[in-house]
Write a structure and sequence with these properties.
Residues 11-125 form the HD domain. By secondary structure, the chain is α+β, with helices and mostly antiparallel strands. Helix content is 46%, strand content 11%. It is built from 13 helices and 7 strands. It has helices spanning 2-8, 16-28, 37-50, 58-72, 81-92, 117-129, 138-143, 159-177, 180-200, 209-213, 219-225, 233-244, 300-306; strands at residues 145-148, 151-155, 247-251, 265-273, 287-288, 295-296, 314-323. The strands form 2 sheets. A 4-stranded mixed beta sheet has the order 1-2-5-6. It is flat and about 70 Å long. The termini are far apart.
């Protein structure tokens, strides 16, 4: 992506060292993911919220892990301290310690309008491996991109492709990430970790990067194998509920009040959107017309004229489960 932008406009302030830093940020931006990825992030943040702790972001952990990587490998001397700061800012998408052109911070983690290579990467890969293919062409998107006014903009004729991308995101979440069974397992995993935390200090493993390096999904085996440890009894019980699929699906009709304090009943809420909650994410993307040097954004009315859009971009479903005796 960065090489394409440079090729599009040779006058852009992008040095070879800048390109190297962007490439390293692309490789390292997810170093900070804990096992179970975003699910663990939700679990630990709920725990921290209840216990007065600060919110934990995997991007910040990626920056800490990057520092740990350099510390553990002192033979790596190629990067200067200001370049490492630049890489960190690229990972978080926030230019706090470095000063480079704004568009460079939109490549890996775009905080402006959520179009970046990270999104293309996981949507393309996950759609492929789940077996329903990729409905959008990120290579075409890349070819249609250029820098205008210090931000990455896209050719107007790629509008349909962007809609396909956001729909692919919705479909991926509905089919896999927020599938009702996945939501149930995530909720049970929350109970497993909270029950085992006092004994295994699970939520402290993200603080020390050396400890974090060895924090893998083997934590589940550690809980299961310690059958004589009474402190892990409740965690083992919940983990076995996942393994044996003890909870059966009851549908989307249920009473929330019936779930309170009832260990045999669980409700799971699923939020679906196109990446901008109730809004249309296409409204935020800067586009440009052929041979023009100014960028623009589409209004909702213009988008309605160009695309067959849903009437609502947000949906909420609650699934109910009950444990079989």
């Amino acid at each position: 992506m960065v090489r394409h932008l440079k090729q599009q406009n040779p006058d852009l302030e992008i040095s070879d060292r800048d390109m190297l830093c962007v490439e390293i940020a692309g490789l390292c931006h997810d170093l900070g993911h804990a096992p179970f990825s975003h699910v663990f992030q939700e679990i630990i943040n709920e725990y921290r919220k209840e216990n007065g702790g600060e919110e934990w972001e995997h991007e910040d952990a990626s920056c800490e892990m990057l520092e740990h990587l350099f510390k553990e490998n002192p033979h790596i001397k190629e990067l200067k301290s200001d370049e490492i700061d630049f890489i960190k800012d690229l990972i978080t998408g926030k230019p706090e310690k470095s000063q480079r052109p704004k568009f460079l911070y939109q490549i890996i983690n775009n905080k402006s309008y959520n179009i970046d290579v990270d999104k293309w990467d996981y949507l393309a890969r996950d759609s492929h491996f789940l077996g329903f293919g990729k409905s959008f062409d990120h290579e075409r998107m890349m070819k249609m991109s250029k820098v205008i006014g210090d931000q990455i903009c896209y050719r107007d004729k790629s509008l349909d492709n962007f809609y396909d991308m956001f729909y692919a995101r919705y479909r991926l979440h509905k089919t896999a990430c927020k599938h009702k069974t996945a939501l149930l397992f995530n909720k049970l995993l929350d109970k497993v970790f909270n029950s085992a935390n006092e004994q295994l200090q699970i939520f402290e493993k993200v603080v020390d990067m050396k400890e974090f390096t060895y924090f893998t999904d083997s934590i589940l085996e550690e809980i299961l194998k310690n059958e004589d440890n009474e402190s892990l009894k409740e965690a083992r019980k919940k983990l076995k509920d996942i393994i044996s699929r003890s909870y059966k699906y009851k549908g989307t009709d249920g009473d929330e009040n019936d779930q309170d304090g009832n260990q045999d009943k669980i409700s799971c809420e699923a939020d679906f959107d196109y990446g901008a909650r109730e809004g249309n994410p296409l409204e935020k993307i800067p586009f440009y017309k052929k041979d023009e040097t100014e960028s623009f954004t589409y209004s909702q009315e213009e988008l309605d004229e160009n695309l067959l859009l849903p009437s609502d971009f947000h949906m909420n479903i609650t699934h109910y489960f009950e444990k079989e005796s």
